Structures are given as structure tokens and as C-alpha cells.
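Re: weekly structure request thread

Next one in the queue (315 aa):
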Amino acid sequence: MNSLFLIKDMKPLVLITAGEPLGIGPEITVKALQDARVRRACRVLVVGEFSSLRKAGWSDNLGILLPLESGEKLPTAHIPSRAGGQVSFQAVKLGIKLALQKHVPLVTAPISKQSWALADVPFTGHTELLREMTKAKGLMMFVSGNLRCGLVTEHFALKHLPLTQKRVETCVRSFSDALEKLGLKNILLGLCALNPHAGDKGRFGTEEEKILLPAVKNLQRNGLCVDGPLPTDAAWLAHIRGKYDGLVCLYHDQALLGLKLAAKKPIVHLTAGLPFCRTSPAHGTAFDIAGKNKADVQSMVAAILFAAKHARRGC
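Done, posted below.
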């Protein structure tokens, strides 16, 4: 394995964790590595549960495999499980450790948050674990062609959104920095509002007047180009038409609903601001189609190609 990290002046090395063994992670990992575009772009080292990858068609010509065995027997059904949570968590921990040590990108296939909970994993998902192990803030963002969005909050119930002026400003700065690292210049961002009609001067909520507008004014005073708060439908329409280089969204579905409806190209999920480039496909474990050879691999392919492209400068 060490020799993989020592070869220079060759295709970049990309680490891949195969995700939830009973979901579609093993299938999309194998399918992606069979894609000629991926084979041309990079070398790969895969960390994952061996039996699930073998069932998905793993062969040694696809890359180097670091096989993990589940501490408990995996169920025969494609469902969340303690065993699946244990082995997928260990795979991601090892992947992050290697990415930190070797300064190479990491692509993570979907894990099951239910499985992690059943395995008593003290993290909701990838993002929280990445932040803990890297000691970096880590911004959740999504890219599809010229469509880009960054999230102020991630996995929270709407009634529990930890929305503060400081959090909004931190997200905008991190998002702008991430887009600059990806090669964009003269960046203009749009900030989505929380309430209908951007609160309509307080008639439909006060977050716009008390939190979002002060954040925008302070950011503008400090040299960042950001508009808002904007009604979500108007913000997405303006972004699709090319006015903004990216949208700052306040919660998970505000970003994903618009992006999945508007995207013409596969969506890549990335965590910006880490010591290495980390990407993943923008979908979940899809237990309902796991093991049926029905999973769409294009988002996984896009995630690997994105990581390979930005391997040396990060993302």
C-alpha cells in the first residue's frame, strides 16, 4: 500500500470508502471504477466491507482494496443494521486518517445514518466526523456544472435551525473561499431568505430583518459581494440564469430541492475547507434498490472525477 503513495508524476491517487455495505455504495463504487473516464483520470484505493464489494462485482484490476470485515454478521436483507454501521464507520475513519496522512483526496459512498445510530456511532454522518477528525470547520456544498450552493446549516429539523448572524457570515466567507480555490474570480453570491417573500418586512417572520440583512451588510462592508436575503424561488431562478456564482442556502432541502430540479449535470457533494479534497455522490443509500443492479452511477463518477481534478490543489 505504501508504494501507492510514493509514486510521483502519475495519475493522482484517490481514496474511496464504499459506504453502507447493504446499500448501493458497493455497487456504485464498482460501477464507477469500471468507467473508462475514471480509469483514465486516477488510481484508486478502496476501503470497504469485502463481501458486499465482491457481490457487487469487485475484481483486483479495478484498484487496490483494503478489505474490512464486519464485527457482526450482516443481515441478508438490505436494511439499516448495527453491523453495517460498524463496518462503514470504520471504513470512513480509516479513509480520513489516510487522507490526512498522505494528503490525497477522499470520495465517500453513502452511509446510512440509521445504521450509524444502531451501531452507537457518536456522529450523525460524514460531515460531523470529518470536522472532528480534521479539526476544520468544513462547509457542506454542492456543485453541478455552473450551479453551486453552500449550506449554513445541515442536518437539523427546521424548528431547531441554529441560525445566527455569525453562522451566516462564516458560511458566506467559507463558500467564497472555496469557489475561489476552484478557480472562480469576482465572485457574487446570493443569500436565500428563510421565510416566504423574504419575510415581507417582518410580516412573515423576523429572521430576515434581525439576522440575514445585518449579516449581508456586514459582509459587504468587509468586501464580499453578496446579495440578499432573497426569496428562494427568485434566488434559484437568478442563479440558473447566471447572475450568481453560488447560492448560500439556510437549510438542507432549500439547497437540494432547487439543485436537483435544475441540474443538467450530475451533482457532486463536497466538504470545503478541509486539509484534503473530500467529495461524495449527492444521494443516499437507496436500500430499496440495493442488490438489484439498478443504481445510477453518474453522481459517483462525477465525485471521483472532481476529486481527481482537484487532487493537488484541494477543493
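Residues 146-262 form a domain with the Isopropylmalate Dehydrogenase fold (CATH 3.40.718.10). The chain has twelve helices and eleven strands.
Next request, please.
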